[in-house]
Specification:
alpha/beta, Rossmann fold, six-stranded parallel β-sheet, 45% helix, 15% strand, globular, MAG_DAG_Lipase, hydrolase, Carboxylesterase, AB_hydrolase_fold, EC 3.1.1.1
Length: 226
């Protein structure tokens, strides 16, 4: 029986925490899964200093090499900025499929951020406010600069991706605007591509009430390709 390997790539300033529910789900399905920690993403702001987007690409590529050694089918799954990295790898290697989750082309939905803050204040929950404060304190200006460079580099590469594609996007994501999903889906040149929006889930959709549906859809996509 041929072996399926999945490379899960977390987002900018984040960690494997963002994708671990999906990793555990796919492992239960019998797939080989690797979730590399991108260089500098230790949770400490100072560790991002001097790190470039090339380092992030290298972190993911090294993990891909490990999967390629022992698996017949490889699926690249990128969350947020991890989707940009996955697009770069899919344009370079012959993989079985590419899945992007809330991957940015157009970022920061300021209307949604405002509504989230109002919701927190009215309900005295402060969940979103704490998340925004934590996010702003976990990165550096140089890291933000290299995120932008990675985005700029990736946009023209999308057309080079010819493997099957599944683009997923939460409509209430405050970090990535829904137009990003359409941009990726429309510009990818392969014939087998799928786009799915979810009404709820926010940016950390794999940690939301929509996670089970997203994971099931990803598993279905992999099985259809396999």
């Amino acid at each position: 029986m041929k072996k399926i390997g999945c490379l899960l790539i977390h987002g900018f300033g984040g960690s494997v925490y963002e994708v671990s529910p999906l990793a555990e789900y796919l492992e239960r399905k019998g797939y080989g899964v690797i979730c590399p920690a991108l260089k500098g993403h230790t949770g400490r702001k100072e560790d991002l200093r001097g790190i470039t987007y090339h380092d992030w690409l290298d972190s993911a590529e090294m993990a891909l090499m490990e999967l390629l050694e022992s698996h017949d089918y490889i699926f690249l799954i990128g969350f947020s900025m991890g989707g940009l990295i996955a697009i770069n790898l899919a344009s370079k290697y012959n993989v079985s499929g590419l899945i992007t989750i809330n991957t940015p082309i157009y970022y920061w939905d300021f209307k949604r951020i405002y509504l989230n803050i109002v919701h927190d204040l009215r309900n005295k929950e402060y969940t979103n406010i704490h998340r925004y404060m934590k996010s702003s304190g976990n990165t550096t200006l140089s890291a933000l600069f290299h995120f932008k460079l990675l985005l700029t580099r990736t946009k023209p590469i999308i057309r080079n991706v010819k493997c099957p594609l599944f683009v997923t996007q939460a409509l209430d994501d405050d970090t990535v605007r829904k137009q990003s999903a359409r941009y990726i889906h429309e510009r990818m040149s392969g014939k087998r591509k799928k786009l799915r929006f979810y009404d709820h889930g926010g940016h950390l959709i794999l940690r939301s009430s929509s996670a089970s549906k997203v994971m099931e859809d990803i598993w279905t996509f992999i099985n259809e390709i396999e």
